[in-house]
Amino acid sequence: MAEIRSIERPTAFGNLSRRFRQTWLGPRRPYWGLLFVLPILGFLIVFKFWPMVRAIRLSFFEASPASRTETFVGLENYTTLANDPLFHKAVGVTASYVVGTVAPLMVLSLLLALLLNQKLRGRSLFRSLIFLPAIVPVIIVPILWRVLFHPYGLANEALILMGLSPVDWLQDVGAVIWALIIPTEWRFVPLYMIIYLAGLQSIPEDLYDAAKVDGASIIQRFRSITLPLLKPTILVVLIASVTFTAKTIVLPLVMTTGGPNNASTTLSLFIYQTGFTFFKMGYASAASIVLLVIVVAFTIVNLRAFRTDD
Amino acid sequence: MNRYRLQARALTTISYLALAFVAFLVLLPLFWMVSTSLKTQPEVFRAPIEWIPPNPRFENYPNSYGTHDFTRFFFNSFLVTSVTTAVHVVLASMAGYGLAKYRFVGARWLLVAILATLMLPIEVIMIPLFLTVRDFGWLDSYQGLILPHIGDAFGIFLMRQYFLSLPNALIEAARIDGAGHVRTFFAIAVPLSRPAMATLAIFMFREVWDEFLWPFLVVTSSDMQTVPIGVRSFQAAELANFPHIMAISTIATVPLVIMFFVFQRQFVRGIQMTGLRE
CB B123 to CB A52 under 8 A? Predict the structure, then answer.
């Protein structure tokens, strides 16, 4: 290196290379990189980081938005949460909603993706049609399904058609969780199907051809080629669907307002009601922190688990 | 070989049947929505279901649209969404470029910090975000609706990934020709990243257009309502008038469906790249 540089220096090329080194994007003016990031960083600081810091601070205070007073209460908000039956219920509802939604979601969307990954005529038409529920506006989902879950609505018509007895979806404490799960599947299976499809299309075709030559059955091909190579996609779908369902609010807020008897009050809805209906901002912040910790912990655990697996 | 061909044919048939069944099932609620929007109130739950109403009441559409100021809501949605999207795409591209093409102290740390905000959706920080915006005096204003959505880590990440794949040679060539940092970005990097920016713009447009929770918290007057908030207040006011509610729901859904069919490719790419937040 030293030798080359000593040869280069006196020549015209050497000059160019030095000028090049000075003006190149690299080490000379690296702070320009930061300048490019600064504008949006400002927005992130004001509307993400600062509110986060504020949420942590607020969770140690008793705060009322009307009088704009804040009193330090230490850990009281957290200890109250630990003994609040409503909060426990919200955690329970969220947990059953997450598990009840994510498990079928992962399987159904993968199955659909497998179907659509075949070379079928008209598959792009099927893909577009099946994708449509994912386009429906977020606010329309609860409004539409509230009518579908009406005692004489389409959901009960379907049950009767299958020879089952109708259910009072939105008034029955046991049924209402399904009134949250079913619309979620409807809207999100198509969405995750699209993500799975991307994963499936990245698997090289020749692997399957080779397996066919070796006489592997469909199921063997799925288990020893598709599944292992799809692992990163499965991880993405799992984390995305859990974090998304764990913070669900619009569906119960608009469709059931948490009822009956709080049987559809999710954690986010609990936070919303505590903060904006009962104006207990400090207490609601403490609950937000708990929600955040759950989501972050889940994400980290999963990233770890999948990494050591490889 | 023959066994495979037979198996393949059976599989194709089963696949078609399964896909047709799923498509039918999935589209049924939407069909019901449109069908109900053309009925009178007593016809809604009449059994057996009249999927195609014998006397379709198209006047449900102008009637429901007219009772609330939906033209204003569409204007608000359009204004908020396009300003948010435009500013976000420019700033996120700049940030993605800065993070991909420069090596400055703490760049890695900065990227991690930015990505960490993906775990801070409105649902988690709604209380302090609301208080912050209130302290600025921005409740019930366009600033309050627009500005909190601009800082979004996903766009930064998407653009960074794109710029990482953009060859340095092009940028270096511009720099050697004497173009400054800013000019290199706008004259070289931006034109080359148009597909990525289009994907991001369409993705962001849909996200912001569809946003419910934040405007629901911030908007207090009917003048500032966006379409989702307008639909929600319409539903709260009309309660049992299902045909009108379904008509408004259809009106709110159609623009997004059209947008999907026009920009299908960018839509799908955007979703596949996110691993998705929703």
Answer: no
Q: Is A291 on the interface with B (CB under 8 A)?
A: yes
- pLDDT digit string, tens, across residues A213-234: 888 888 888 888 899 999 888 9
Residues in B 165-194 with any Cβ partner in A closer than 8 A: 168, 171-172, 175-176, 178, 181, 185
Domain boundaries, chain A: 1-49, 79-309
> Are B95 and A237 an interchain contact pair (Cβ–Cβ within 8 Å)?
no
Contact assessment for residue A30 and residue B103, using Cβ atoms and an 8 Å cutoff: yes
d(CA A242, CA A102): 7
Scanning B76-115 for CB atoms below 8 A from A yields 88, 91-92, 94-95, 97-99, 101-105, 107, 110, 113-114
Which pLDDT score is estimated for A134?
92
**pTM of the predicted protein model:** 0.89
For chain B, what is the domain count?
A: 2
What mean pLDDT do residues B141-158 have?
A: 94
CATH superfamily, domain at A79-309: MetI-like (1.10.3720.10)
Confidence band, pLDDT 50/70/90 cuts, at residue A306 = low
For residue range A112-124, what is the model confidence (pLDDT) as tens digits?
999 999 888 888 8
